[in-house]
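Hi support team,

I'm filing this because I wasn't sure whether my run with S-adenosylmethionine finished correctly. The job status page said complete, but I'd like someone to confirm that the output block is well-formed before I use it downstream. Pasting the exact inputs I used:
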Amino acid sequence: MVWNPQQYLKFAGHRLRPALDLLARVPDFPADTIVDLGAGAGNVTKLLKQRWPNAKVTGIEGSAEMVAAGRKAAPDVEWQHADLASWQPSKRYDLVYSNAALHWLPDHAKLFPAIMKNVAPGGFLAVQMPRNFLAPSHVLIAETALTGPWRGKVEHLVTPPPVHEPQFYHEVLAPHAADIDIWESEYLQVLEGENPVKEWTKGTWLTRYLDVLEGDEKAAFEAAYGEQVAKAYPRNAAGQTLFPFRRMFMVVQAKD
Ligand SMILES: C[S@@+](CC[C@H](N)C(=O)[O-])C[C@H]1O[C@@H](n2cnc3c(N)ncnc32)[C@H](O)[C@@H]1O
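And here is everything the job wrote out:
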């Protein structure tokens, strides 16, 4: 999938809030090595460097466009253009942090214990993932995919939600953890502008579908989804759109 940093950063403030809420729950501890998985445009990675200025901070990112944006936003971070699906570091990190990225990878029953093995003894894994896949913003993407002339090209993208219940993560991480803190928050995001929920998903989940379509068909898919999602999230009297968005967080300490 091709990531567009400008589209993604249209809602930079709203997207930053959960990253900060996650960071706030990571205890103060002397981290020498930190890795940010799916570091994106670097606007969160640079905060890791600010909080632990003496640590070596590495950003792993699979999109060349995002790596370029990240290098500009956080030049004192080491950037690695790599696919997390095959990421096998040669050493463990004191803090493995990941905001809004790991839901792009499959098979969390295998993925999470594998990532936990890259956390140094006594160190922390801190992860935030959206859990909004059954909300109209996301369900309407699948419905649009399955009801238009494009169905044959996009139906393979209609898959079950990639993120499980909190209990699932507790179960798969417990054998590797000294302590597990998992919670969820639903943010009532107040958005401005024309059809902002469409603009929001166009920076992330909708892009998976638009990427495989071209020209008029791509525009028609976006318009069909846009019409439905605008109805699902009407503007209030003040012209704002209220977009509830649920996210799951975990801060897990590795065993000594
Ligand atoms: C929603 S963005 C989040 C970016 C950043 N963590 C933030 O909080 O702003 C998700 C990022 O994960 C990256 N990503 C998704 N799958 C990946 C993979 N398999 N390997 C590396 N990066 C991946 C995407 O390229 C994208 O930049």
